[in-house]
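User: Working on a comparison across species. This one is Mannitol-1-phosphate/altronate dehydrogenases from Siphonobacter aquaeclarae. Can you predict its structure so I can line it up against the others?
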Amino acid sequence: MQEILTGEPALFRSPAHTRASVVHLGTDYPATRYTHRKPGETSVWGAVGASVSNEDTLTTSPEVQVVTVSLEDGPFSDLRVARYLLEALRERRHTGAGPFTVISRDAVSRNGDAVRNVVLAVAGEEDPDLAAWIAGTVTFPNTLSLRINKSVNYLLHGPDGAPGYPDAYTIVEDRFSAGHPDWEGVLFVDDIAPYEDLLHRFETTARFMLGFPAFLAGYRTAGEALSHLFFRQYLQDFLDTDLAPLTEVPAGAASEAFRERVFGQLMADIGEEEIHTWLTAAPDTIVRTIPDMSARDGDFRRVAFLLACYGHYLAGQVRLGALDSEAFPEEDILRIQDENQLAFLRITPLAALEDTPLLAALIRQYRKQLDVQGVMPTLAALL
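Assistant: Here's the predicted structure for Mannitol-1-phosphate/altronate dehydrogenases from Siphonobacter aquaeclarae:
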């Protein structure tokens, strides 16, 4: 299905402030509105206006200035959407209608680059001259949404009652082939890489901080763990108090928005993912924050709690005979089994954290509490 997204007043505008259309090639719900939520209101920044069967007529229209696509919707599996784009661009080049901007709506890194690579690869095989023209004139901005929702929300709707996707914070590279959209709530930037790097750091760190203690507490999915106030508060405190001060936030971004994206990602996108799949690697991203925390006289309690849980988890795996012998050499396994509950800090991934006295003292304290009280009472005392 191909759907026209027609611009609402004061939204999709060309430099001359004329109205422009946006075409989506994908399989979205046919009466979806894409919304920007503010406290007490919902504003619409794009809406499905019609469903049609002639994608060539759609995408070759001079009024169309932006085409959105999704690699995750499925059509790219047989390159149909890529060829739709090529046919439309070939016709527009022939008629003088000019290029349009192609925007990916996928929640993947460098999503615009991914679409561009597919389109140019197909064009290079079928029409090298067209490929050269696309490479020089058509833009594929990378985008990043800081709140992803897998389904529409019927509480967010326009006057006609059509449901919407809440899209609280979106970042788009400011590279447009034809006309510049005036999208309220969208941050336009020169390069999306610093924002993606920051988000990756937040998400990766959050998985480590949540995974080991939640697994020990008996939770098996992120959604289950974060439904408990203790884990939600613990992770929020870490991101806000411990990680955010160590992180250089790119211009125009707010650490609160990144934190909300992390919670949204864990709750919605991977909420049903089995936590045990996160436990195959050491928390090295956490370890790398410790020197910076030391330099700033940071609060080690939450990191110490995580590392105590990590040591507890490793000891349990050794007792079960389930520890990966390839990842942990014999000398590391002996350290994990040692009666000295700080000996595991000398295993290869943790590299002498025992030399940070305050951190080591807190880890010893939490390991004793875990032995006697368990995870949840220890976490409650920490909070």
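For your comparison, note: The chain has two domains: 2-189, 194-382.

User: Helpful, thanks.
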